[in-house]
Amino acid sequence: MAGNAVSINGSWASRWxxxxxxxxxxxxxxNIWKFPYMTxxxxxxxxxxxxxxxxALVGLPIMLAETLIGRRxxxxxxxxxxxxxxxxxxxxxxxWPAVMGMVAALLILSFYSVIxxxxxxxxxxxxxxxxxxxDAAGAGAAFGALTADPWRLTLWHxxxxxxxxxxxxxxxxxxxxxxxxxxxxxxxxxxxxxLGYSFTTGHFMEGFHFLFSFQPDKVLDGVLAAMGHxxxxxxxxxxxxxxxxxxxxRHASIGATVLxxxxxxxxxxxxxxxxxxxxxxxxxxxxxxxxxxxxxTLPVAFGNIPFGQLxxxxxxxxxxxxxxxxxxxxxxxxxxxxxERTGRSRALIxxxxxxxxxxxGMGTVLSFNLGADARFFVFGEDGFHLFQWGAExxxxxxxxxxxxxxxxxxxxGGLAFVLFAGWVLKRETVREELALRSPLLFTAVYWxxxxxxxxxxxxVFVAELAKQ
Length: 468
Ligand code: PHE
Description:
By secondary structure, this protein is mostly helical. It has one domain: Amino acid/polyamine transporter I (Up-down Bundle), CATH 1.20.1740. Helices cover about 75% and strands about 5% of the residues. It is built from 18 helices and two strands. It has helices at about 15-25, 30-40, 45-75, 75-85, 95-125, 135-150, 150-170, 170-200, 205-210, 225-235, 240-245, 255-280, 295-305, 310-340, 345-365, 395-425, 425-435, 440-465; strands at about 375-380, 385-390. Strands 1-2 form a two-stranded antiparallel sheet. The longest helix has about 35 residues, at about 310-340. It is globular. The protein binds phenylalanine. Phenylalanine binds near residues 31 and 232.
């Protein structure tokens, strides 16, 4: 049955468009913002090695599983899993993880839009020369002033959500495919310009050593972080890759395609690190600044080096595009599902869902200012409180959503998808979809999906929860 179906939502012109789309989804704030600072925090080369291992043994098998489920059924994740489960003689209830993934993707979008909105503010700020000659205190104050102002945050959050909704509403071919064909090459060009620039700072080797110096004693520190990041950076565990897989042409090789996406994502992360740290060093700043690296440290660096204003603007445009091509992939699974289910117009469904995400995102906006005292999941001396105003510990609204999605929903979703491909689908179905020429290679990949990847997720997941 499913073998010849075509998605009612559309399909990509070629497997290259899938590569563009999946890479667009994968490359985002995770690569440009999170990866460099995590590498700095977890011992440079040691973290990079662990990250590569996690990508290869866990991330890629899950990505493969998602792509093949999507392409086999050619429907949105929920309907794809339901129909393939029934086809394999299993319960349609096995589609529940896809529902969870859809919700997780919308939750991620709610806060991703707020953070991406900051880069909109920074594009204008950099362009206008707001950071010229600024020192660390000044850049910190500028960032503080932005996050303290709910109106400004709301403005950028709204604008970014509209940008995201706009592409999705126009559809798979006219919206996604067309904009990806422009945005992705632009993203690569901007990244290369930035890398070229970092060569000229005279601190390139310093950055290189920082990224790749191997500190064996730090290997274990970074395992959990590396695994968690592998999920986030590859966009697996929520159905984004699955829905893009459902638009993939029938005769494209899934294995080679997925491998290309994984390699491109990793290359962008490494290049971003190589482009970024020399600039940080050229400005005489600390590389281990953590999450503030991009919005506080970098502006100081750009504000004090030749051509910094221009390059800083280029940098934040790059961040913006990367975030945009990721955010559209968070909205698509739910839009595709509701279009299939209700038959209503794509534009209407997109508007409704974007509004919903926007509303939840307002919680994140407020968690930086007026609502900073609203704490969730508080383990106080008088026991556990789900919510407490003004508590010492606990998590803000933003932290809670971030934690819930990246630490819990994403790994669970990834685990469910890879188990589905490995244990629910028939071996023949998987073999047919993968169409690998070498039987030995097929066996290896199949076992990665059946055993290695699920075990990897389980171990890390349990260890993460135990740490709490
Ligand atoms: N991979 C994206 C990034 O690195 C984030 C993302 C997560 C996108 C989940 C889609 C789904 O920023």
